[in-house]
Amino acid sequence: MQRKVLAIFEAPTVFILECTTLEVVSALGINPELELTILLRKDGVMYADRAKKIGSGADRMTAGEAWKSMESLFRGHIYAVKEDIEQRGIPAKRIVSQIELLPRKNVAHLIDENNTVMVY
Questions:
Q1: What does the alpha-carbon distance between residue 110 and residue 83 come to, in Å, rounded to a whole number?
Q2: 119 and 111 in contact (C-beta within 8 Å)?
Q3: Which of 9, 10, 24, 38 fits a 20 to 30 Å CA distance from 101?
Q4: Cα-to-chain-centroid distance, residue 31
Q5: Is the model's pLDDT at 82 over the cut of 80?
Q6: Does the domain formed by 3-119 have CATH 3.40.1260.10?
Q7: Phi, psi (degrees; rounded to nearest 5) at 102
Q8: How many Å apart are CA 30 and CA 2, to the nearest integer?
Q9: Residue 72's pLDDT band (cuts 50, 70, 90)
Q10: Whole-structure pTM value
Q11: Is 34 helix (H, G, I), strand (E, B) or coil?
């Protein structure tokens, strides 16, 4: 049985999108033995905005481009809290296509169904 891991990102700080090397994503649990789910909430939902610029210098890209580059490394579920998206004024048309909006009332259930929860 796969171990289920939930990684919750609450702030747009150094994040998986800014460091998408195989070593980094493996350290976060993206491997065949783990089922990883990512939840963006609070200010972390800024990573759901495909137009958000991330990184610096020559590595600067949009969050949409970064999520796209991760598709081959990450096959888990990605959620963002719907109410947090709305509070920050991110229009639905700018949400990254790989991200599913999750009502805040369903967050507790998502936490309960995972074996391990990490909050960043």
A1: 16
A2: no
A3: 24
A4: 16
A5: yes
A6: yes
A7: -125, 125
A8: 12
A9: low
A10: 0.83
A11: strand
